[in-house]
Records
---
Amino acid sequence: MPRLLAVLGGITVIAILGFIMLPAVVVTLAAFNGRAILSFPPETWSWRWFAKALAYEDFGSGFRNGLIVTAWASTIALVVGAAFALALERYEFRFKRTLEIVLLSPLVVPHFTVGLGFLILAAQLGVARGYAVVVACHVVLVLPFVLRSVYVSLRNLDPRLELAAASLGAPPHRVLTTVTLPLLLPGLVSGWLFAAILSFNEFTASLFVTAQRTQTLPVALYNYVREYADPSMAAVSVLYIVLTAVLLTFATVFLGLGKVLNVEAPR
Amino acid sequence: MRLPAEGSAPGAAAATSQDVAVALDGVTRRFGETAALDDVSLSVRRGELMTLLGPSGCGKTTLLNLVAGFLAPDRGEIAIDGERVTDRPAYRREIGIMFQSYALFPHMSVAANVGYGLRMRRRPKAEIARRVEEALALVKLAGLEDRRPRQLSGGQQQRVALARALVIRPKVLLLDEPFSALDRNLRGAMQVELKQIQQQLGVSTIFVTHDQSEALSLSDRIAVMAAGRIRQLGTPDEIYRRPSDRFVASFVGDVNVLPARLEWIDGATAVVALGETRVEVPARPLAGTTIGAPVDLFVRPEELRVAEEGEAAVHGTVAAQIYQGGHVDLHVDVQEAASGRVLLRVSGHEAMARWPAGTRIGIALVADRAIAFSRA
C-alpha cells in the first residue's frame, strides 16, 4: 500500500512538472514545422522559420529596443527603489504609510491603465513617443518589485553591523560603502534581475506607449501575429528561451548567481 | 588595577577628573513618554570594569548607547577622558564595542574584521598587519586570519569581536551582554579570559548585563539600575552585603524575606525582633521608622542554619533538598516568610541524610549580617 502511494505521488509530481513545461514544449515543436501554419504536432520538419525570424527587421529592432528600455528602466528603478526602501526602513516620518501604499500601488493598478495613463499624459504634454515615455512607464511598473526585494534584504541586515562599523571610526558614507552596500548586494542584484525580466517581457502597457520606432519585442510579436500566422513567432520564442537559459547558466556557473539570489545556502 | 578604597561611600566620587574615563552628568533620555534614563550621573574610573546591572528595560542598554554615541541625550552631558562628547558622533568617539550578537562583518575575513578600525583610520598597511596579528594573538586566535566569521564557533566569534574592538586602543570598551549567547561552560572560561585581558590592558570598561552572578564575579564596581535610575553604586561586596534598598537586595543574589519588628535604634545599629530572636541590623535603611513598627528582614541563604533545640527564630518543614556539590540548598516551607518559603544553604553532603523532605526544623541566623527595610 505505501508503495502504491509512492508511485501515485511520483506520477502526480511528473504530471505537474509536465503541465508546467507543456507550453514551452508545444511552441518549441511548432517552431520546426515545415509548413507555413502554426500547428501541433508538425507534419514535416524544417529550420526555415528560424532563418526568417532572424532576418525579419521588426523582431531585430524590437529586441534591441527591448534591451535599451530594460537596461534603463531596471537601473533607474533600482536606484529609486533602493533609496525609497532605505528611507522606509530607516526613518520615521509623516505619511510614511501613504508613501508605501503609493509605491506599491502599481501592483493593483492594471498594466493597461498605467500604459493608457502614460499615453494620455505624453499626448497632453506634447512629448514625442520616444524611449523616455516607455522607460518611465516601465520604471513605474517594476518599481514595487525592486522596492520589495531591497526592503527585504534591508530588513535582514543587522543594524548593529552598521553601529559596529561606526564605533570603529567609519563615517556614514564609509559605513555605506564598506558594510551596507556590500551586504545588500544580493538584494540589489536580484531586484535588478527581476525588474529586467519583467520589463523585457512587458506587453500590455508597452502596447500603448511604444511607437513603431520604439516597439519592444513582445509588441513586435503581437503586431506580427495580427497579420501572419506562420511558425516564425514560435521560432522567436525558442530563441528567447535558449538565450535566457544560456545567460542564467552562465551567471550561475561563472558569477555565482545562486549565492547572489540566495537560492543556494551559503554554509 | 585600582581597587576602590574599602568602605568608601557609594557614589561619592573621590576620584579626581584625571582618573575618570567616562562621566555622565544629569543625563536624561526619553522614548516617547517614558524616561529610559532619568537624570543619571555616573563616573567610570580609568582602568575600571564598571557593570550596569538591572532587569530588562532598566535603562542600562540606553546608557551604553549614549556613551557609544548611537543615541543623543535629551538633557545632560557626557564626557570621555575629560573631553565633552555629548554632540560628537559615534565614529569620532574612539570607543570599542562588543555586541551580544558580536556583529562581525560576514563578508570579511577575520583579519579584515579586526583590521577594519585601523583601515578607517588610514594606518599604513604594515602597521595594520602587525597590530591585527598582535590583537589576534591576545585573544588566542592566531592562524585563523583568513577564515570567515560563519566558519568560526560562537566562542571564536566572540574573540574576534573583542580583538576588533581592542585593536583601535579604545578610550573605553563597551560590552553589551557579551556572554548570554554562549553555553554555560564556555561562558565561565570566557569571563575569566575577558577579565584577564581587561586588566592586562588596563582598558576602562562598561559592561552591561542582567545576570547578577556575572556582575558579582567580574566587576570592580556595579551600578544597579531600575526604571531609568541608578539604585546603588558600589563594589560587588557592598552591593551584596549592604544593599541600599529592597530592590537591590532582592535583585542581587538569593534572599529570604522574613517579617520582624523594630525594637530600638542606637546610632548606626538597630535591633529587630524575629520571633524570640533579636537581630542587629544597620540603622540607616530604617531611618524614620517608628519603634515597634513591622519591618522586613532580608537574610542571605548562607547566613541561615538549622537551629539547635530552643534557639530557632522560625520553624518550618523541609520541602525539598537540592544537592549542589559543595553545599546543599534546603527549601523550607515557613508560614511567616513573605514567599512562604525559606532557602537555606548548608555545607556538607551529610545535610541530605539529616534533614530529608518532610522534616520539621528550626531556623537560626548565623551572624548579624542581615539587613532590614521598613514595609513599603
Note: The radius of gyration of chain A is 23 Å.
---
Amino acid sequence: MAADGELLLRLRSGDERAFVSLVERYQEQMLRLAASFVPSRAVAEEVVQDTWLALLRGLDAFEGRSSLRTWLFRILVNQARTTGTREHRSVPVADPEPAVDPARFDTSGSWADPPEHWIEAVEGRVEAGKLADRIRELMDELPARQREVVILRDVEEMSSEEVCSVLAISHGNQRVLLHRGRSRLRQLFEDEFGGVR
Amino acid sequence: MRLLPRRDLVCRQAVELVTDYLEGALSRRARQLFEAHLAGCPHCTEYLAQMRETIRLAGRLEPEDLTPEQRDEFVELYRRWRSGQE
C-alpha cells in the first residue's frame, strides 16, 4: 500500500487514482467519526464529501506541517462540528464513570464478580467476517466522544498527540475518554462473548 | 494523576490504572504498585489481558472496499473539481 506522502505527491500531479486510494483508505472511519457529530447518516455523508472537496481545494496550500491524515481528519472534525447540532463541548470529564460497575467489587474493593473469560471464545464462536461487523456494532454503542477517541486511537491507530490535534482536546481529556471508551468496550465484549467456562 | 493509597492497591483501584499503565503514563511508584497488585491477583491479570484484547480487536477492523458505484462517484467528484466546477 502506498504511503500517504506518496499519494500526496501523486495527487498534486493530478493522479485521480491516488485520490480514489485515499478515499478507500479513510472514507469508512471518516463516516463513522462524522456520524458521531451530526444527526443522520445522510448529513454525515455530506460532511465527508465536503471534506474531500476541501482537501482537494487545499492541496496547494497544504504545507505538510502535520501528516496528511491528521490534516484530513482535522478538516473533517471542523466541518462536522460546524454542521452538527449536537452539543459538543471539549470538557468531558465532569462525571466520574468507573471502568467497572462498582457492584462487581466487595466492600474491601476486591472482585466479588470477577471478569468472565471471553478472549478464547471470540475467534472460535464467530466467523471472521461477522466478527468485524459485530465489533463495529458494539463500538457504535459507545457514547459519541468516547467512540471518537477509540476509533482514532485503536482503529486508525493514531498517536495520542495526533488524536488531541484532530479533536482539539487536551491530553488529559484524551486519556480519560480513551480509558472510558476502552473499558466500556471491554464490558460489551464480556457481555457478548463471556459466560463460557 | 489520581491519588494513590500509601499501601497496596485494591482491584477497584487497579482497573482504573490500566489505560495509564498501557500508555506508559504512570509514575514509577504507581507502576510498581500496579505490577505488584497484578502479581498477586489473577482476576486483574485477566482484566488487563482483556483490555489488551479489546484494543487488538478494534485494531483488526480494516476499511471495507468501496463498491464500484462509490468508486465512480469519487472519480466523478475528482473530475468535477479538476474541471473547476467544484
Note: Chain A has a mean pLDDT of 89.
---
Amino acid sequence: MKKRSHLNHKQKVKGVKARKFYRILVEVGPHESLRNLHHFRLDHCCMPQRSIDDAGIRRLHAYASGATVLALRKAGRKVKILADVNAEGKSVRQFVGKGDRFQGGQHGSTGVGKLV
Amino acid sequence: MALIMNTTEIVSALAYYEKTYPRLCQRIVLPEKTFEKRTCYALRIARSRGRNKPAVLIIAGAHAREWGGPDIVINFAGDVLRANHNRKGLQYLKKSFSVRDIKTIIEDRTIFIFPCVNPDGVEFSHNKQHLWRKNRNPTYSKGDPRRIGVDINRNYDFLWNFKKYFHPAAWTSSLASDNPAIETYHGPKPFSEPETRNVRWLIDKSRPVLFLDLHSYDGDVLYTWGNDENQTTDPCQNFLNSAYNKKRGRIGDTYREYLSLEDYETATGVALAVSDAMRDVRNKHYKPLQAVGLYPTCGTSSDYAFSRHLVHPGLTKTFAFTLEFNFEGTAKDPFLATANPKTLHKTMLDVIPGLIALCLAVPQNRRTRGRSTHPSMSRLSRACQDR
C-alpha cells in the first residue's frame, strides 16, 4: 500500500535548496540529548513533538534551512522533509485581515460566545 | 468565521471597546514604542470604584508566529463586555457561565489585557515570513537579516544569564541562547527590549494577582516554575541562592526549585480550574502541567511575574501561568493551524472559557504581599552556611 505523504501536491519538495526553509523531522536516539543537535541551530521551540515510536525512534519536529538539512544528512542524520515553509505560509496569508475591517474603532469584534 | 486580525485591527478593536463601553473600558497607551515605531495598547476593564479589587493581567502575541493569540484575548474581552451589557450569561458549546459570573468579573475584578505584545514581529509574520518568532530589533544583527530580533519570552529578568545559573547540560536552544541567529536569543541584557519593558510597566501598574501569557502550541496550562522541577520541602534550593548556580535546569537531578506548599496548591488549583473550563467545552483536555514539563526555560514572563514578590518582598504576589493553546494541525504547520477560520473559531471556543475561569479563580484569602514562606537573602545565606 502506498504511504500517504505529509505534503500536499502543491507543496512537494523536489530538491533541498540551501536558502529555503523547511519543516522537518530529524531522527534522534531514544535517550539522546538534544544538546547533540545544538550546533545545527534547529528551531523547535513550542512545536508539537511526537512520542517515541514502537521501534524506539524519536523524531524531532523542527524548522531548518536547506543548508541545515544538508548538514544534518552529511552528519548521518535521517531527515524527513514535511513541507516547504514559505509555501505553507503563502497558502494561509489569505486568512489574515486586510486593511482595517474595524475602521479605527467604528466597528469591532464582539466575541464568539452565545448569550444565554 | 473570523479572519486573523492584523496589527491595525487589533488596535482598532481596543478603540471600539473603549468607545462602546466608556464606563467600563479604558485604553492604555504603553510607554515604549517598538523598534518599528509602533505604539502598543492595553485595555483596562473594570467598573471604577474606590475599593482595591484584585487585578488579572492577560497578555498575548509575544511570539509572532503563534497566530490567534491576540484574536482570542480580544474576543474574550468582547464576550465579557457584551454579556455584561445585555445582563446575560455566556455559553461555549457545553460550557456555560452565569450572569453572576460575568457580573463578578466586571464588578469585583480589574481586568487588563495586552493582546499584542510584539506587533513588529506579528506584522512580519503575517506578511513576510510566517515562522518568525522574535521581535524585529536589528541592533544585534550586524547587518545579517537572519540574526534580527530578540525572543521576547527569554528577555525577562528571571535567571536571564543562563550560563551563570544553569547546568551546562541544560544549555539547549529551547532554554535560551546568546546567539542572535537562534530563535531563543535572549538579548544583551534583561529588559533590553521595549516589548518586555511594556509588560513590566503594566505589571508594575496593575499589580495583578493572576497573570497569564497566551502562547501556542501544545494544549497545556503551565504553572510555576519553568527553570526546574518543583519541590516544597527545602527553601534553600531556590533561584536566589548562588550556591546552586550552574546546577539548575537538569530534570531528575538533585536540584529542584522551591515553591511553598501553599503557593503550589494555589497555582495548581488555578491551573486546574482553567483547564477544567476548557475541557468542558468539547472535551479537549488541556493539561495542567508544571512549566518545566514542556522544557526548562529562563527569562520567561510567567516566571518573572511570580518571582517578583520573592525578589522584592513589598510587591504583590502574582500567580503566573502560560497557556499553550491549540491541538489541531499536527500534520501541517502547527502555528498556522489557527489561520484557518474554522480552527481559529474552535480554538477561541476552547480557550476563552479558560480565561473567564482564570478571572473567577482569584485566590481567596490571598497573601498579596511578603514572602513568609520564602527565606530572605540574608536568612537564606545563614541557613545554608549552617548546613
Note: The longest strand of chain B covers residues 208-216.
